[in-house]
Amino acid sequence: MEPGIYDLGDEALVMRPFVDIEGSGQGVTSITSAGVFAVIAASDAEIRELTVESTSPHPPGLGCPTPLQDCYAVLVDTGVDAKITNATIHTTSGTFPLGVNPGSTVEVNGGSITCASFCHGVQVDGGSATLKGTSITAFGFLSRGVDAGGTVNLINVTVDVGNGGTKALQALGGTINVHNSIIRGEHILVAGGQINIGASQVELFGSATGATCVASYDSSFTPLGANCL
């Protein structure tokens, strides 16, 4: 795709299997949509070198467009095995950047995932996601960096969330494995799942409930206990 902003209105770009979408660079080629989804991924297809942005106007925290549904910039739907490389995924108004449905997988390499207010940077509902060298930023009230009902592997990833009831990592029945990463935020929460953090920097303003840390440290390089505190 050539440089420019490709505004889809309220529609989504529905990818096809075995057809990659490559832009001219992050911030140079942008796909935007105010609909429920901006891009719906496909198996054996890659999104790379572009920006995907959801500008959905739906109120944050109230469901999108209904209380039982979330809006995503990129959706990896059930049964899809997708790949995202060097892409910026961004949302406004409380919608979520990346959603992974049950029975699906996604590999994310490089790039950034950002959102603000009532948002989850990466939402994995029963599927699996592996992120390598990616930054995840989720600032605003009640935001989450990673919310896992499935399996999430973070390798050399930075997760950065602010104050206001936020959680850098949250495992609700899922598993989050963190390797050689930086985790900053207010809380880490495990509820019916697992969070395993190895050889990483963890800086929390609040609590770490149920997580396990091995060979990890804070921003002053003080070793953390097995409870990540």
Task: Tell me the Rg in angstroms.
Answer: 17 Å
Percent in helix: under 10%
The class by helix and strand makeup works out as: mainly beta
Distance between termini? 47 Å
Number of domains: 2
Order of helices and strands: EEEEEEEEEEEEEEEEEEEEEEEEE
Number of helices, counting only DSSP H or I runs of 4 residues or more: 0
Overall morphology: globular
Mind explaining what this structure looks like?
With 229 residues, the protein is an all-beta fold. It has two domains: 1-97, no CATH class; 119-229, no CATH class. The protein has no helices and 25 strands. It has strands at residues 4-7, 13-14, 21-22, 29-33, 37-40, 46-54, 72-76, 81-91, 96-100, 105-109, 112-116, 120-124, 128-132, 135-139, 144-148, 151-155, 158-161, 167-172, 175-179, 182-185, 187-191, 194-198, 201-204, 208-209, 212-214. The strands form two sheets. It has a 16-stranded parallel beta sheet that branches. The model has no long low-confidence stretch (mean pLDDT 93).
Give me the secondary-structure topology.
Layout: E1 4-7, E2 13-14, E3 21-22, E4 29-33, E5 37-40, E6 46-54, E7 72-76, E8 81-91, E9 96-100, E10 105-109, E11 112-116, E12 120-124, E13 128-132, E14 135-139, E15 144-148, E16 151-155, E17 158-161, E18 167-172, E19 175-179, E20 182-185, E21 187-191, E22 194-198, E23 201-204, E24 208-209, E25 212-214
Parallel strand pairs: 1-4, 2-5, 3-6, 4-6, 5-7, 6-8, 7-9, 8-10, 8-11, 9-12, 10-13, 11-14, 12-15, 13-16, 14-17, 15-18, 16-19, 17-20, 18-21, 19-22, 20-23, 21-24, 22-25
